[in-house]
Amino acid sequence: MLNDPLAAVLSKIMNAERVGKREVMLVPASKMIKKVLSLLQERSYVGGYEEIEDGRGTILKLSLLGNINKCGVVKPRFSTKKNEFEKWEKRYLPAKDFGVIVVSTPQGVMTHLDAKQKNIGGKLLAYCY
User: Does CATH number 3.20.20.70 belong to domain 5-64?
Assistant: First the structure.
C-alpha cells in the first residue's frame, strides 16, 4: 500500500522524463491525481492521458511532451492564505511567473495563479516547472 499516491505518480513522471520516454503508465489512479494531471495538461507540461480498466483497477497511460524540468509534492501539505502565495513561489519555483503550484481550495483543485485571481487560499499539493 502506498503512503502518498500523488508523490509516487509525480516521481514516476519525473523518472520517465529524465530518461526521455514518450509515455508512462501510472498505476494508482484517483480523482485527485486525474485533476492534477489535467491541470498540468492545461499548462502544456504533459500530453493527454487515457484511462485503461483492468480487473484490479484503473491504469492511466500518460503521454509526455518533455516539458517538465522538475515536479514534486509539497510535504507537509502547508496551509496558505490568499496573500501568502509569493512566499511559496519563492520556495518551490525557480523564478517569478515560471511554473505552477497546485493548490487544494474550498472551490476545488486549481493552480496558485487561479487561486490568486479568485482571492482564496488552501493547501499546497504539488509544484511543477
Answer: no
Residue 37 · residue 29 · CB < 8 Å = no
**CA distances (Å), 74 to each of 25, 53, 66, 70, in order?**
23, 29, 22, 13
Which pairing describes strands 79-80 and 100-105: parallel, antiparallel, or unpaired? unpaired
Grid cell at residue 29: 489512479
Task: Report the CATH fold assignment for 74-128.
Answer: Dna Ligase; domain 1 (3.30.1490)
Low-confidence ranges of the chain (pLDDT < 50): none
The string over 59-90, giving b where at least 16 C-beta atoms fall within 10 Å of a residue's C-beta and e elsewhere, is ebebebeeebeebebbeebeebeeeebeebbe
What CA–CA distance (Å, rounded) separates 30 from 13?
Answer: 16
CA–CA distance, 64 with 19 (Å, rounded to integer): 11
Q: Which residue ranges make up each domain of the chain?
A: 5-64, 74-128
Whole-structure pTM over 0.85, yes or no?
A: yes
pLDDT digits (tens, 9 = 90+) for 35-47: 999 999 999 999 9
